[in-house]
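During the first year of the project, the team set up a workflow for recording each protein of interest as an amino acid sequence followed immediately by a discrete structure-token representation. This format lets reviewers and collaborators read both layers of information side by side without switching files. As required by the reporting guidelines, we include two representative entries from the current panel. The first entry is reproduced here exactly as it appears in our internal archive.
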Amino acid sequence: MREFLLGLRLLLGAGRGNRARFLLMAAGGSLGVCCLALVLTIPSILEAHDGRAAAREPRTTSARPADATLVLQRSDPYGSRAFTRVFVAKGSDGTQERTPPGIEELPDPGEVLVSPRVHELLRDQPDVAGLLPGRETGLIGPAGLAHPDELFAYVGTARGAITDEGRALKSFGYDYAPFPAVEPSTLTILRFALGTLVLLPLAIFLSVCARLSAASRTRRLAALRLLGLSAKGTQRVNAAETVAAALLGALLGLGEYWLLNQVMTRTGLPSLRWYPDDGALSATTVVVCLVGCPALAWFVGRASARDAATSPLAVRRVAVPEPPTKWGGLLLVTGLGIVTGYCVTGLMGRAASSTGPNALLVPAGVLLTGVGLVLTLPLISYTLARWIARTTRSLTLNLAMRRNEVEPGSTMRVVTGLVLLVFAASLAQGVLIQLKQVTRPSSPVQDYTIALPGITPQQQRDLGEAPGIRAHAVMMDSWVDLDTLPDDAIPEQVTALVATCEQFAALVRSSQGCTDGKAMRLIDPNSSVGSDLTPGTPFTFRFEGGKAKPLTVPLPSQGILYSAYSPSAVGSAAVLVPPSALPVGARPEAAHLVLTSSSDPARVRTALDGIAAVAPIAEIELVGVNIQGLQQIAVIETLLALGMIMGLVIGVAAFVVSVTDRAVERRAQVTAVTLLGARARTMRAVQCAQVVLPLSIGLLLALITGKLAESSYLITGGSEIQWDLAGTPLLALAAVGVIAVAAAGTMPLIGRRIDPELIRRD
């Protein structure tokens, strides 16, 4: 306790510069704690989403007594989001008194309870009222909604309207959500990715903040040691200052997070919204921030004071420090050995799976590679600086490399955050690639089908020109008069695609032999559709309202050889009918409108929003994918983007703090060299080279090791894309940009004013 109080007295009485450094340490620590609290709270936000969705889920039974309350739940895509409607027909068995969270009682026939977002949608898009038969009588409270932007409604209806499909209501609430915001297995991967993106750079950043003005503090501690303070006491004095700064920073950081949570719940993030209580600080998060960060500062403070405590004379006389340890290289080699081994299995065509021991080895290999890269950078910087200083004839490089040789750890504190950011970016890219392939089909196109009777002719034309839609056609089913068939006969039916050759080519992977203006048979070698039909067999197609005569199309013998995407909406068609064969203005009776777009998630969302703008009450079927999977991808992309932003903020903050502190610490050396005749331009070049050379080496290693870690993850995950070469140019360009910004950031740190007094200051 005596040493702790001495540390606080030195903190308060060591001058204005020391107090400014203390405040800078606290401010930097607060930024790190704010990011840490956000990362720790994200799982709680997702759990709150799922908890409310589970609490409102109807518990039903297939047995339907005459007095039972019936419910029927529909979840359809509206644009790029799910629109959930729960139809309720009240009974007299008492279950109508059991209400889900967010409402006081179930709606009567003709009454509709909607979420606030649906209320706004009804005001802006009156056509949406077609989805909600009845009058709006109230709003659903936050307890009944997964998130503030959810499209959800309870619709009161007559019992006869849902008798066929409705189920008897028992109660509300399950232990699990029917469609979780993020699947549990995916959430584990997401936590690992966010930990790599944010927590590793955060630990480096907090260590940097705890070691501000390390050289001057070490000399002051060495003086205390020479005055008779014990070695452990000297370490405690230094740790007291860093712990006080970390504790103040933790308190400020928690306050910053509280403000950030209030702002973000009002503005939201793309595809992710939450209520303020969802993001409230939990006891665990507060304990981790208030105990973990000061504990890290305590260990960093004790470690940074070890030299002053054990060799005070060497510190006061500025003795040459020992070379960096080589143990970090062992971690890097071990991690690279693991990830490279999995990459070799992919190259040999015998990709390892992610089951068994591999489920632990892959994350361990990635973590060992990242941590080993950080711990090996000082050794690499030392070796490189020593070799360049011995071989170069450039005064600038010699001065720069000699300083890096003497203080390799100081240099690497400047660049470590940025190096880790590039390493983590590769891993995040691999996670996105894997999740998109798991939750979406691998086809390059996405098809949508809409029942033709549910839209008007004008809407049909407008949908073909909606944003994101690149092709459209009509699929119609043939009609059979069942009364004319024998009892044991199986009716022959066929699905025809009404399209031109150009439209058909845009809907399939490849086609050969198409002729415009002629009905032709569709032949896919990979499908058996239509293979049992006899050429010449007539098929009849009827039109809406009976305004046009039925169209009879004999099955053509001439065919089109084509290859469909998998999955595809047109894969069930056996005949191609030209639009000119249909009567003018006639619309098929049993038909669907087929639309197609790129399968890129952004394009799919654009297409769905465009469809909803034209036909808001039309029921859309996404071929091969559900809207919940699409929403999950959007949430994951948002969280990974948030992690990248936090990693970037932490990396840049660590760079700015480290470079500024480094420049202040070296004012005496810069002044001495300047008085010996070095120009300011030379000193700026020295300062730039001290940062740019080790940073370039670190970023190059981050690119290589990051790509190996990404490939090992993709290979063991069974991804079709195992080598993400498309992302390499972007990461390389980002690395070049980081180097340019780092070089520009070092330029203003060499002042023009020369103060000889700095040379003799302690």
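The second entry, processed by the same pipeline in the following quarter, appears below.
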Amino acid sequence: MADRSASALSLPEDWPAHPDPILALNRMGSFDWDLDAGLMDLDAQALEVFDLLPEEYDGRPESLTARVPPPEAARLDAAIAQAIKEGSENYGAYFRIRRRDGSPRWTHTQGYIRRDETGRPRRVVGIVRDATRELADSAARSLRAAQDEAFRQQTGVVQVISAALAHARTVQDVIDVLKDTHGVRHLGAASLVMGLLEAGRIRLVAEGPAGASVPGTHITRIDEPYPMSEVVRTLSPRYIESPEEFAADYPILWPHITGLRITSAAYLPLIAQARPIGAMGLLYDDRRGFSDEERAVLVALGSSIAQSLMRAMLYEQEKDLAQGLQQAMLPRTIPSVRGADIAVRYRSAALGRDIGGDWYDLIPLPGSTASGAGRVGAVIGDVQGHDTHAAAVMGQLRIVLRAYAAEGHPPATVMARASVFLHELDTDRFATCLYAETDLSTGVVQAVRAGHIDPLVRRGDGTCHRVPVPGGLPLGLSAEFGRLEYPVATLELDPGDTLLLCTDGLVELPGTDVDDGMRGLAALVGEEPAEMRDLADRLIRMAEERGGDDDVALLLLHRRVRQATRPGGRLRQHVAPGDPEGLTHARHLIRAAVRAWGAREQADEIELVADELMTNALLHTEGSAIVTLRALDGSAERRLRVEVEDSSSALPRRRDAGRDGVSGRGLLLVDRLADSWGVEARGGGKAVWCEFRLPWGL
């Protein structure tokens, strides 16, 4: 290799260089490429080799693209870059140009790289010559090797595009791949148009750049005189090899695209499953004619695009069907509830058929209160699987659970019956579920959980925490294993608090712990806006940004702040015999209701009296007791009434308990604490009642 410094010293200062006239005598042209200025000087013989007129060349290498196809230019640039990178003094390469008449010409170039004293390349000087005869004389295999190399280059482009298309899921994804700068433009196309066949018409779905299509041709019939219509009718590609041929064969279309300076075009039918689904046109502004190899590459490209489009169209059809089925299974509307703001959202999985078994529901319950606030059941659940069967099971389970709740069954019974139903449905699916029955007049929530994640509660001050709810087995499994017990957890929603129920898709990702997800969700909810719709939108947006392979269902229930603290409402609770937890639970509900109705100072007395009446009914009668708490407005006073019903007609007796006795003090306590009390016959049983006067100022 020559010494670089010597090369630099021998570099003439004038530019361009003046080669020996003997080059011209040998039909060789010379060039001098100033790398710093980005200018390349071509002598007259070099311009003749490139089949260019002097006025057609402005000294910039980019001007040669009219003669050097992009694949050839890319190969030549790679050879020069490799020589510079390796420190070589020279390089040589064969490449094809396309002459003015569209015919190809093999050309050879030999370049010498000149560097300065630092070794930086500054100029490239060399020769360029017509190598067609040389290649023909040196043997057909050399020409064939060069042609094969060009074919491999174009085939590689098709492979790259096909690989990108393999990831396309929608028609728009396919279009984006083709319009990308790394897509069809690698084949040298200046623009493209693509249309899909719909009911005997071709609807344009892509054009690039804007204006590549003709106004009024966004929807055309297949019998109209346009190239895409022709290839759909004939199922054969159409190659237009010159502007003259374009103008003669398509006189309606040609005047509208003359501004694109099109020199040739290839229109390909898009055929999948032996039927046309559309057509695509590739328009060129730097070539005429198509070799057999180029036509084979374009046919392969059209086939790959057609298969990708068919997959995308089938995917979109399945997606529409799945989403329609999913929406049909979910509640069409969520009822408005006085005293609460509700927001629900559903986000389908990122993979699969975009359908699953997640659901939400809000169920109005019997027993609205005198204050107007109602009782509602909030449901969140997830049937195992992501397919139409999971959605079908979800729809049946949602309806059944809604029916059980609307009948007035306690939350534990609702969940147990739903589990039995799913077990008897003869399906291999199970479901997780959380059911929260909320009395909006008192804020008392009774929650049961079947293998589902816990709820969250955001307080009025913005703090948010997870609420542990004892759980039973998932629905379907509990009936199978004979374990239908679902413990009831009681929590209170103060005015301004929000109950959040969701499926695990919102908090769980592969490789992460669900507890970490719950803590992260609680922190996020505490920072987000208090308005229910805004909060729901933000949480679903977070799930979409994060991705994931699971559905997300979300239900937010916000208890509104009361405008006044006037007591009012109705509470009714069933207490079974031999159930101390049920008795404790009833006392909890009564105390919470009294405080919510504004009688906080009398809550202790009322809870104590109600407890005595319930205990009396359970000890001295057979069967369960039903306690009812009501606020009564009268013209002269406000009262709170407690009633305990049982199935015995035997009237209670007030007895002296004696100095050391325990039994017999209950009615005495009721008589001392209540303002009035009595007994009423109720069918085959009775009701013991008592009333407390409440101040008007509350």
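For the second entry, the following points were noted during internal review. Residues 151 and 294 are 7 Å apart (CA to CA). The first strand starts at residue 28 and ends at 34. Both points are flagged for discussion at the upcoming steering committee meeting.
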